[in-house]
């Protein structure tokens, strides 16, 4: 390796770190749920489910918007190419 190049973390190390963070977060959440009464726990689980679905929906909307933007770019590129073909054809005549 080149001495001036930055160290790159191996992907398995990053996955392990992410897994540990998720486990810690899950453990803390479970501890918080354990301190609630059954009805409070039920309400919290319902809120968590709604939050998850909301985040999932927002991500899907964001992906859909990216898809629309990409299709718009493709269309604009195709239009520009067609215009160039026409311009080139007119110049040759």
Automatic annotation (TrEMBL):
Residues 21-30 have a biased composition (Basic residues). Residues 21-45 are annotated as: Disordered. It comes from the Eukaryota. This is Uncharacterized protein.
């Amino acid at each position: 390796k080149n001495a001036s190049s930055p160290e790159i973390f191996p992907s398995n190390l990053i996955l392990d770190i992410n897994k540990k963070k998720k486990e810690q977060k899950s453990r803390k959440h479970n501890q918080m749920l354990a301190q609630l009464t059954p009805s409070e726990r039920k309400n919290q689980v319902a809120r968590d489910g709604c939050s998850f679905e909301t985040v999932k929906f927002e991500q899907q909307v964001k992906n859909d918007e990216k898809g629309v933007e990409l299709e718009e770019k493709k269309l604009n590129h195709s239009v520009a190419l067609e215009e160039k073909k026409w311009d080139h054809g007119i110049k040759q005549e």
